[in-house]
Structures are given as structure tokens and as C-alpha cells.
Amino acid sequence: MTGIVAQNALLVSLAVVVFGMVIIPLGVQRKRTGWIELGYAAVYTNFLLVSVAVVAMIYALVTHDFSISYVAQVGSRETPLFYTVISLWGALEGSILFWAWVLSLYASAAVWINRRRPGNLVPYAGATFMAISLFFAIMLVGPANPFLAVSPVPLDGPGPNPLLQNHILMAVHPPLLYLGYVGMSVPFAFAAGAMLSGEVTSDDWTHITRRWTLASWGFLSAAIIAGMWWSYEVLGWGGYWAWDPVENASFLPWLTATAYLHSVMVQQRRGMLRLWNLNLVVGTFVLTILGTFLTRSGILSSVHAFTTGPIGYYFLSFIVVVLVSTLALVWGNSERLRTTGQLDSAASRETVLLLNNLFLTAFMFTVLIGTLYPLVAEALRGVKVSVGRPFFDRMTLPMIVALLFLMGVGPALPWRSASRAEVRAKLLPPVAGALLFTAVALIAGARDVYAVLAFCFVGYSAVANLREYWNGMQRRRAAHGEGWGTALARGVGRRQYGGYIAHMGVLLVALGITASSTFRREREATLKPGETLTVAGQTVRLKEVWGRQEVQRSVIGATMEVMKNGAVVGVIEPRMNFYPTSDQPVPTPEVRSTIAGDLYVNLMAFEPQGKNATVKVIIEPLTPWIWFGGGVVVLGAIVSILPTVPPRRSEKVAFAAPPPPPPVVAVPRQAEA
Amino acid sequence: MTRRRWAIVAILILGGTFAWLLYGGLDKNVVFFLTPKELLAKGTASYEVPIRLGGQVKPSSVKWDAKTLDLRFVITDGSGEIAVSEKGAPPQMFRDGIGVVVEGRYGRDGIFQATNLMVKHSNEYRAPKPGQQPHEMYKTLIKGSTS
User: Is residue A298 less than 8 Å (CB to CB) from chain B?
Assistant: First the structure.
């Protein structure tokens, strides 16, 4: 019953999507606003229909309706309710359904909010949303249909992948990732709308989509950090990033989206980079589809796994269609996309932003090629190769270090051009931060060139960004006589300060990553109860090895005492979870965090009678700062999204005599040379 | 127009350098995934370069010293065999006949020094065979087990 309702909802959704995709362009061409309104109604209706399917799926999962193929595939009567609900996105078909639902939600919200805007931009954006939805609607009634009838109905199912039901972060990471991924279709749809309607010269599409892009970028950043955290907490190797293709898939669109967030400022302020920004938006969207394709088509385990099912071909065709049609659009608009501004001086913010884009794009291509190379090598030459950490480290570390430095230079430099004195006044003081961090890193024992450089530039950019924030606050206090609190709150409401906060977050993440990978110490030992192991001054003692039967799994754990100066100060219990559907246990390390770093203990092996346990103990300084830094990045995105706090009426007078506006006429170059 | 031409030249130079760097990086850092047979067929070319070696653990070849964490076993693919040595604990489910992938270098002494050992991931869930269910295997540890 549930399956029939959902299948019909998805079939109707397919029809509605096709209708919307056709009626809107027709309405625009024949100037029938009624038809466009009908098309908007199709956008909203599609959201309702896909919602019906999602609710039906959750209902089927919760009621263990194994007559539905997806439930039979991922459900199990023993799985706790919580993990049953989140297995909605645990496998291919469910995640496609979830994708389609998030897309329909974004499309409805973006169209609804902008529906009164005159011009053809919004109608064409709506039509683009429908075109993207068409792909997912076809997938859902065709090769990725999650509601197929199963006969005979099984009594029970295998349950979700053990790795996915072992930690609560799996409830957080995928929805954030999808919100970020799918959100990138909003700037894409409006960019396509701008090109289709010929409104590409007005930059309006960048203003309309500013908050959407920032929100998606914030979700994507949070998703990447949550994914790192999950891998740290579940995989048991004490690391959080392995340049694994699945990780790279989430990182690729983040790089281009980050580049876009920076270069769009150059477009809005200086009328440059119009064509470039369109390419970044299209690229980001295609990379989100590519990411879904890589993680969901099975191509990563083997090129041959991909050719056994039709899913991969659908995705590849969709990517080709998107690329060809948008390239044709960009080509058709290229005459209109002439740059109106130009670079006035090398010492300016736009130069730094150009460099930032150069590095981020090169970074993206490096990761993309490293990720795809094994697939291409296997398909073309029949050899299985892997591109691992050495390649990525060697190629990306110089770019990462350069980007860390630019993060400090960019905010400090003014638009257009800076005088030599200005450059000196802005760029010299942060050197103190660089020296301090370098000294601390060297004293702590860092010797790797890139590690020392990373510490150095983190110190530099942290001081530079904090100074900008501080100076902005001081100016507010001087100009409006505001108190500290008001100046802080008002300052926080400014878009650019959101950017500085995000910079600080990225610097914290960089600091955490550099410190935890440089100063990481680990030891592995087999202990009998009562024996101790000491790593970097931290001692743990094995108390006992125990076992327990839980509803959906068996657990073997080692109780270990954390010692300080011979006294027990805490207990840490790494475990191994055995799920009945898997022949491999899921490692469940336990982490004890302080502000200075983590004590990470993983149970590697145990003797069946519990006479001994082999444990790995890792000391990782500053790892919690990565997660905290991720939170700061998200805060920065939120601050940038929030509207600027309007000044009170009395202060508007103060604004009547504003501080001198940024010079509109370029200062002749000789003046500053 | 000259400005445009300069930009094109600059982009070409930058792109070329970048492509060259990428090619060099890939050429030096690609790790081949081989079976014991393929590794042996490569002869001396396979010594001391990073390799991922995949196969099955040869039955009754596993020797593990819990005190020194010294693990030795033989990987086989049916036609070729390679002795592997690793420092560290074997994964809990490590046993005869299981599929493994090791990362490391093949030494001139004929022993593969592994730095990383992974039990082969399978995306299809196979239930453990009867007798290999944890609550049967670790009866003495798990109290109140149901079998």
C-alpha cells in the first residue's frame, strides 16, 4: 500500500516536472504570466509529491515493511529506531530520494521568495530547477526506484551497513552534505536563468543567490568537518583525512565554491571575472553531481562494478548534458560577458583574490586528477593503481601554505590600489604573529618545512584578520561613539566580518591539522590486566577485557585506567562492535579530549578468553581545535548571511556625514610609486 | 588586445607548468595494486617501490608474537606466494584464507615489509558462518549470550 502510494506520487512528480520545465519557457516566450505562474505551481507541487514519497519511505522503514525493496535492503527488526530512520540515506536509492527531496525544497523556497521579481531571470531559474529535478525523477521511477515490490516478502532484513550505525555523527554528516551539495544548484539555476534570459550583465543573479550560496557553503563546510570527525571516531586509525575518493568527492565542490565566494566580490565591486564566476558556479554544480556519482555508483571499488548497473551511465549522461548545455549557454553569452573593470595595481585586494582563485582552482584540479586517475588507468590500461597521500601531500601542501598566507594578506589590502606606506602599515605588524608561531613550532620540535611554514602563516593570518576586526570596531566606536558591545554586535553584522570569522575558523582547522599530524605520537602493545603503556608521558593501564550482548550487536571492550602521577584520573573504554551481518568488527575507539589535545585509544585485538588485549594509544595535540574551528567557519557563514543590523535613528545623522567613501577614481600609479 | 594576448600567454605558461607538475607527481607517486603472481613477474623492477599487494592469507602461515608485535604470514593468489612481515597487531578477524591488502615495499630479501594491513572490504554483507559468530567465538567473555 505504502509502496503504491509512493510510486504513484513519484510518477506524478515526473509528469509535473516535465510540465513545469516546458510551460515556463513557453510562458516567457508568449508573454503569458499565467503560464509562468502554472510553472511555479509545478515547482511547489513537485516538493509536495516528493515529500509524500519521503514520508512513505520513513513510514515503511519504521514499520519494517519488507515488501518494499529499499527496506528489504537496509532494514532490520533489530536496528534501533534512530538508525532505522537515518538509513533513509544509507544506500543508493534512498540517498537519491533524499537528494530529490532536498532539491525540491530548495527549488520551491528559492522560487517562492523571488517570485515577484520582474524580468525573466526567475522563470528561467525555475525551469532550470525543473530540468535538474527531471534527472532525479527519472532515476526514482527507473533505475533507482526504492519502492519496488519484493516477493516473497522477507521476514527480516540485513540492516544498514555496520559502519553507518555505529556512531551518531552518521546522522549529521549525510544531511549536511546533501544540504550543501544540493544547495549549490541554487546559484547554478539562477546563473543558468541569467544566461537564458540575457540578464547576465546585471550581476543580479549573484545578489539573489548570495545567501543561498553562503548557506550551502556553510553546510558543505560543516559536512566535511563532520565527516572527518566521524572517520576519526569510527575508523580507529586516529586520523581524519586520508585523501580517500569519498572524502575528495565532498572536498572538490567546496574548493570551487570557496573560490566563487571570493571572486564574486571582485565581480560585484569591480565588474571583472563575470565569465570566470559563471564557470565556477557551473563547475561547482557539476562537481556535486560527480561526487554523488563517485560515491554512489560503485565505480570506486572497481570500474567493472560500475558497468554492471545502469546507474553509472545515467549519471555520466547527466554530467555530459549539463556540461554541454551550459558551455553552449556561456558561449552564446560570451559577447555580453565583457569585463568592465580592470586591475589597477598589483598591491590590491583584487590581486590577492585572483591568486586565491588560481590556487583554489589548481587545488581542485589536483584533487580531481588524483581521484580520477586510478579509474582512468583501470579503464584504459587495465592496471589497478592507487594515488595516495604522497601525491596529494606533495602537490597540495605548497598550495595550502600559500593560501594560508593569502588569507592574511587579502583582508589587509584595500580594493583598487594601496600606497607603499599603506602596504607597510598593514602587512608588517602581523609578522609578529608569524615569528611567534614559528618560534613555538620550532621549540616544540617541528622540523618539516611545510609544517613550520603552516604554523608561520597561521600566525601571520590570525593576527592580520584579528587586526582588521579590531580596527573596524575601533572605527565604529570613534565614528558613532558606540560602546564595545554595540560596536562588536554591529561589526559582527557586517558581511566582511563574517568572512574574517570564517578565516579564523579555517586557521584554527589548519592549526589543529598541522599540530596533530606533526606532533602525533603512537604506540601499540599487548597488555595483560594490570600492565601499563606510556606514550608521550601519558600512561594507561589495562583493567579488564569484557564482553556484552546488546540488542543488535555483540560488544567486546577493554576497560583502561588513565593514570597521572601514579593515581587513576579516569577510565577509557575502547570497544569492538560485532554486527551479525558483517564478518568484520567495527572498531570503536574512545577519545578523551582536553583543550591541549586528545588521548585516543583503540582496541586492536584481544585474546578470546580475555587474558590480554592489544591496544593502540595515540596522543594527538590540538585535534579538538579542528572540530571547534569547523564551528567557527560555520559561524562566519551565519554572520555573513544575517542582515546588517540597521543603525538607530539618531545614528543615521552620523551617517549623513559618512567617512570618506572608497575612492571611485583610480589613483594614478605614479603617485604611489 | 595586447593585454588579452598577454593574459593568454600567462595562462598557457601557468597551465603548462601545472600540468607538468601534476604529471611528475603522478608518475612518481602512483602505487600499483598487484597480486603475488604479478609482483613476482615484475622481477627486479618490483624491489623497494611502494606497492599494494592483495591476495589471501595462506592457511597456517600466520605467526604472531604478541610481545614484540611481530606479524608474519604468506599472501597467495593460488599461483604465487609472497612472505609478508609487519609490525603491529593483526585485525581481530584476521585468519587463514581471508582476503587482505598490504601496503609496503618488497625487499631484496624476498620479504614484503608491510606498513599497513587491511582486511579486504566487501560492500556486500556476508553473515559470518555458524561458529564464527562473536557470541560463539568469545563465549567466556560474553555472558548471557543466546546460543
Answer: yes
